[in-house]
Amino acid sequence: MSNDRWMWDATATLEALGAADVALWVWEPEKDRLRLTGATRALGLGPLAPDCSSAALRALSLPQDRVLAEDILRVQPPGGEVAVRLRMRGAGVCIWRGVWLEEGVRAAGVVAPETKFAASDQDTLTGLLDRRSFIHRARERLQSPGPHELIVADLDRLRRLNEALGHERADLVLAALGSRLAAAFPPGALLARIGEDEFAALCAAESSPGPEALRRALEQPLRVAGFDIHPTLSIGAVEAEGGDEAPEAAELLRRAELAVEAARSHGRGGAAAYGRSLETDGLSRLALEGDLKGALKRGELAPFYQPIVRLSTGALSGFEALVRWRHPRRGLLMPEQFLPLCDEMGIMSEIGAMMMREAARQLAAWRRRHRAAGELSVSVNLSTGEIDRPDLVEDVLAIRRETDLPPGALKLEVTESDVMRDPDRAAVTLRNLRAAGAALALDDFGTGFSSLSYLTRLPFDTLKIDRYFVRTMATNEGSTKIVSSVVKLGQDLSMEVVAEGVENAGMARQLLALGCDYGQGFGYAPALSAQEAEVYLNESYVDGAAPLKARG
């Protein structure tokens, strides 16, 4: 009977190993012998092949890598893994990986350039661990007794970064954040990029810098391709006791990511710790999606109005219309609780059109009923991509005809990323909106995506300073400088400047000292229903100024 059993051809095997820049090794500690075959010369291992003693291996390793070499040579239990990095003379970093085959007898594996293993172990952009490897190593780390802290940081507005800068430049931001993460944590901490815009760190609780220290390290400004970027992160943290009763690593990571979602619901730059109450959010999200499908038609989504006040006199200047959901069972829901779902469902343009129409009608009603309200304006945010909606200009013209609002009474707020995605096209649309009688505001200015050359060519009336910079003026000198620069820029370009997030009289005085024109925020009032806003309007005109909290 013929023997069809296929056998390895030794020559072909060696040629394949050579072509792949991989060598095989077998270590026999009792014989003090390390045998190598394959691409030994290409890897800088030629002096060791075909076999050598442990002394030769130690001699050829660089001084700073001799401890790693000892790890390869130390006897381990059967099944124990060998996985260390070793830089040999004349070669780059190599990874030695293998397993102990028999009890105290021999180990075997492969050695190859570090890049051969990068896809299975590291995130190629940042050099940190990838998600799979992080979970694997965290599982081992959590076996150590004592408290551990896992921190997950999610970069806010990555999509806006990609739209404004392009993916390659946005990748530079992510790479820089990876480097800052590594610098912020002590040696030995497990660091990873676990998602497109998510980073994770696990270390002993006593040596952890903590969420806020991590924020300070990662949120420092950076400059990429001529753009000043001011990254902000939503951060979640969870602590766990290591040892036999330690939670599974993947479960711990899930808890930290739940905390990140909770932090994001508080607005950009939020932070939260894991708690049991977060567990219901997943089921809650599914139910909310079902309720949203008919909410717009039922009139449950409606504009609420936040006052905008002249800082120098306290006089009411206008309102910003912000969407709220009067949910029949859950009560009043904030935008961060449902707008991400609206975006996923593709109904943001419908919501934007409704907001613009209802806010204009309400302003027209106030102007008819209150003679003193004749100079008020109402601002409406255009959602991401809405500037490209084909019937946007026609809607503005129709609304102005219907409400008889004068030019400039209806103000549209546009984000920087929407403008910078296609500045030339945006310029045409903005000029058409201006011709249709809408005033124009550039929202969240100062977040670092705008090109000043384009700003001078676009027909904006107003710059709005992002609330993050206003909120952190008292504790961050850089935020004060950014606010001052935006105010000065607005003055030079003859634009009004509105600061968001004014929480108390101290902030208002600081903004006024910097020359800022207008402010809005909880210091004056939150977003109010139409009825509450009308009461506020009456009181402000009776008193001569809008009330302002002494402290936040």
TrEMBL record:
Residues 285-541 form the EAL domain. Residues 146-276 form the GGDEF domain. GO terms for molecular function: cyclic-guanylate-specific phosphodiesterase activity. InterPro entries: Cyclic-di-GMP_PDE-like, EAL_dom, EAL_sf, GGDEF_dom, Nucleotide_cyclase, PdeA-like_PAS, Rev_trsase/Diguanyl_cyclase. PANTHER family: CYCLIC DI-GMP PHOSPHODIESTERASE PDEF (PTHR33121), OXYGEN SENSOR PROTEIN DOSP (PTHR33121:SF71). NCBIfam families: GGDEF. This is GGDEF family protein. It comes from Phenylobacterium zucineum (strain HLK1). The lineage of its organism: Bacteria, Pseudomonadati, Pseudomonadota, Alphaproteobacteria, Caulobacterales.
